[in-house]
Amino acid sequence: MKRMLFIEPKSPGYHIFSRFPLPRLGIFILATIMRRHGWDVEVVLEETRGISDGSLAAADLVCISTITPTAMNAYRIGDRARRMGKTVLLGGPHATFLAEEALGHADFVIRGEGEQSITAFADAWSGAGDFSAVRGLSYWKGEKIIHNPQGGHIQDLDSLPIIDYRLLRDVLTVVSGYRIIPVQTSRGCPFDCSFCSVTGMFGKKYRFRSHNHVMEELRRYSEPNDFVFFYDDNFTANRARAKELLRRMIGEGLTFPWSTQVRVDVARDEDLLRLMKRAGCHTLFIGFESVNPASLKEMKKGQTVEEITGAIGAIKRHGIHIHGMFVFGFDQDTPETVASTVAFARRMQLSSLQFLLLTPLPGSVLFRDLEAQGRITTRDWSQYDTHHVVFRPKGFTPYQLQMAQVEGHDSVYSLPQIARKLVRGNMIGTALGVYARNLNRSWRRLNADYLRQMKDSA
């Protein structure tokens, strides 16, 4: 039996989720497909354990999935495997958008949704087919790179297998005694925010799994210590669909705690919020991005400051926690607008929040625009983690923008802010505040040389 090794490279640096690594689902779906296709498979998350020479030596094919901040590690692993004489296949968003760069460290690249191509590629590699027939495949043919036509997006998400739990169980993150289980019920997003690469990878049209398919998966995760994280980019994109799924969860007693990502428009529907709470919703992750109207317009977010404020109030009234995310560095941002955003975040008393630095990810409109303007300052992809400045902003020096994030975190996670949450009985917010405060201090210590160099060059 041929053996395929799937690898998720480790994220670089130090960030708010460093202690809570959540596995991306792509390689687990692919591994499940290949196991059904008759291959022996192994999945390794470098975040949780190292990649041994034994695992590499035993593999016939080494498949590495990468997003932009993990690209440097992916390339390092690919080079290592090729030195051992292994065939290396790269996939994921970064390899999709920069296939020729990726082929400097791999023999093959699958662009786009790999589930449609992985078995055809494996058969061709085994000698039973033709590489030219594999959709979305990029590969070396002598000294020339060939890019096969891209396949379309998978329309029937029920055709994808439910992840083989045996592949997943040893890599689940445990937080406060809960196993964090990733589940995805949809793909795609029509909003096309300028800084986001989701639409480039998954398209602008929402595609949904059926309720029956999702429920079949959720029934596997009903232990008292299970905590589901729905990976959808917008879980409530179709409110009627979301409500029906929530009713079915409630009807079957599958009301374990869960979290997901939504937009502020979720708060327009009080009935939806009530159902979410009844079904076990613990925390909503929301990209508020900014309270500067000009910046919201620039990023094409499609929301207003009034909607942001109203959404926070409505969600908190239903007893649901909020993890808010804000982004600094748009052309319409200034030190004054960033200070206003930080003050707003403090005033709202969210359970937790992040201030992120605008990052031009390959595949986004932002990347294309900044590259055309010559404003991207580094292609060290390990710094594309939303915690390092990688372009020349307009309203700040790079150092000023970097410190706006660091000092913003200092402000919202100050001891008085943490004490205020404690007095109000918000124990989760208090615990997260202590964690985030220590994390921010550790980041500053580990990046002291980086910050010093930025300041000296300002």
Short description:
This protein is an alpha/beta fold and 458 residues long. It has a domain at 3-147: Cobalamin-binding domain (Rossmann fold), CATH 3.40.50.
Note down, in words, how this protein is organized:
The chain has a domain at 3-147: 3-Layer(aba) Sandwich (Rossmann fold). It starts with a strand and ends with a helix. The mean pLDDT is 91. The longest helix has 20 residues, at 427-446. Helix 16 packs antiparallel against helix 18 (427-446). It has helices at residues 26-36, 53-58, 71-83, 93-97, 99-102, 118-125, 165-168, 198-202, 211-218, 239-251, 270-278, 293-298, 305-317, 335-348, 365-372, 398-412, 415-423, 427-446, 448-457, and strands spanning 3-8, 40-45, 61-65, 87-91, 108-110, 137-141, 144-147, 173-175, 178-183, 186-187, 207-208, 226-230, 258-262, 281-289, 321-328, 352-357. The chain has 458 residues and is an alpha/beta fold.
Number of H- or I-type helical stretches: 19
The CATH superfamily title of the domain at 3-147: Cobalamin-binding domain
**Structural class category:** alpha/beta
Shape: globular
Rg = 22 Å
Mean of residue pLDDT values: 91
| Largest sheet properties | 7 strands, mixed
CATH class category label of the domain at 3-147: Alpha Beta
Q: What is the number of strand segments?
A: 16
Strand order in the largest sheet: 2-1-3-4-5-6-7
What percent strand?
15-25%
Helix share of residues? 25-40%
CA(first)-CA(last) distance: 58 Å
User: What is CATH's topology name of the domain at 3-147?
Assistant: Rossmann fold
User: Spans of 5+ residues with little confidence (pLDDT < 50)?
Assistant: none
Instruction: Just name the CATH architecture of the domain at 3-147.
Output: 3-Layer(aba) Sandwich
